[in-house]
Write a structure and sequence with these properties.
The protein has 396 residues and is an alpha/beta fold. It contains twelve helices and 15 strands.
């Protein structure tokens, strides 16, 4: 196998030499943030040839100059690599497009180890001495608490603000960039939820420490998608050849967008979109699925779709995304509800999932059915987030 020459880079003043053998990481593209030195030759097997160039998070964050990067693809042998030495390839978790099947398998393997750590009576001290800052500009229960629990179960400490939009200097007009530059001085990793799509990418371009996107407006929620795929694998026993129904607010739901991206990494997947007309899945996701050869279909018949699918992924209609258009919200709300009638047509092995919070889109009498996987799904978020914190802060 052809190998690239070692590339030297610096991060926070330290110099490191690494060897790359990752084909297809990127194509010719100009970058303006976290740019690589022009002399670096990258080759990556982490992404398929049909994927666009993703930003290389391996290189120094303090290199902000423009650079044209050209990558030469070579054949990879053996198992997909996701590390350089003992370092996890990704420096930030910003969107689902960063991951491919090899990366997902590696994260899930660590998550399974984290289940053992969490069940241990003494836990682990592997992140002792590390501080995680949580900046949540939007409300959160599961995501914020699961990240904080993950950090503490691994021996780390947490700095947190529950409502950064109101109770931080953002209320005084401070820019996101200034907030990030300040908070990174107090912590080793930042977990951020923001009301604006693209905010996590801005934070990552600014920070010299890892950033994890815990949801950016109607954009993406990559860690939720990771735990969703992890849950599907554990519940169904496979990820290839599955049929998944995405139900509810598909226009504003960052969880379904991120999940759709990740499902393209598996073979023979079919996705059904079931939603009111006012909140249909946006064309960019449909076009991406088509470009990746993933079969998808829109349907207005929940009962028909439920009888075919392995996973019903229900979401709430998000009132906060409608602004003042309460008429549109009321038009969309309550149209598709998972109840015992829906359960009656589902296959025995199928499961119902939900990213929470739940309103009335899944009736409480579904909770007692063994196919109601949403509380198990929420618990899996702990293991995935423990795995990500470990990988980003310590590597392998």
């Amino acid at each position: 196998m052809t190998m690239a020459s070692p590339a030297t880079f610096s991060r926070n003043g330290f110099r490191n030499e690494v060897m790359f053998n990752y084909p297809n990481l990127c194509s010719n593209q100009s970058r303006d943030t976290k740019a690589m030195p022009a002399s670096a030759k990258m080759q990556s097997s982490l992404l398929t040839s049909s994927e666009k160039c993703v930003k290389s998070q391996l290189f120094a964050r303090n290199l902000r100059k423009n650079s044209n990067i050209q990558c030469r693809a070579v054949a990879a042998e053996g198992k997909t690599l996701v590390t350089v030495g003992n370092k996890f390839l990704l420096e930030d978790i910003i969107d689902a497009q960063q991951f491919n099947r090899g990366t997902l398998d590696a994260v899930f393997e660590v998550a399974r180890e984290m289940e053992k750590v969490e069940k241990g009576s003494l836990g682990s001290q592997m992140l002792k001495g590390h501080l995680m800052a949580t900046l949540f500009y939007e409300p959160s229960t599961r995501t914020r608490l699961s990240f904080e629990s993950a950090m503490k179960r691994l021996g780390g400490e947490v700095l947190t603000t529950e409502n950064a939009r109101e109770f931080s200097s953002a209320a005084k007009g401070e820019t996101l960039e200034d907030t990030i530059r300040t908070v990174e001085g107090y912590s080793d990793i930042i977990v951020m939820r923001h009301f604006e799509s693209g905010a996590a990418k801005r934070a990552a371009a600014t920070a010299s420490i890892p950033i994890i996107n815990a949801g950016d407006g109607p954009g993406q929620h990559p860690t939720q998608a990771l735990l969703d795929v992890y849950t599907i694998e554990r519940e169904i026993g496979k990820l290839d050849g599955i049929k998944v129904a995405l139900i509810g607010d598909l226009a504003n739901g960052r969880t379904v967008r991120s999940l759709a991206y990740l499902l393209t990494k598996y073979q023979d997947v079919k996705i059904y979109f079931v939603s009111p007309d006012v909140v249909k899945m946006k064309d960019d996701i449909k076009e991406y699925l088509t470009s990746e050869g993933v079969d998808w279909e829109e349907s207005a018949d929940l009962m028909d779709v439920a009888s075919k699918c392995d996973v019903l992924y229900q979401t709430r209609i998000q009132r906060e995304r409608f602004g003042g258009r309460t008429d549109l919200y009321e038009e969309a709300r309550g149209k598709y509800i998972v109840d015992p009638d829906v359960l009656s047509v589902m296959q025995k092995h199928a499961v119902v999932m939900h990213p929470f919070p739940r309103l009335d889109e899944i009736t409480v009498d579904v909770d007692g059915d063994a196919r109601a996987a949403y509380f198990r799904q929420a618990k899996n978020g702990l293991y995935i987030r423990m795995a990500l914190l470990k990988l980003l802060l310590l590597g392998w």
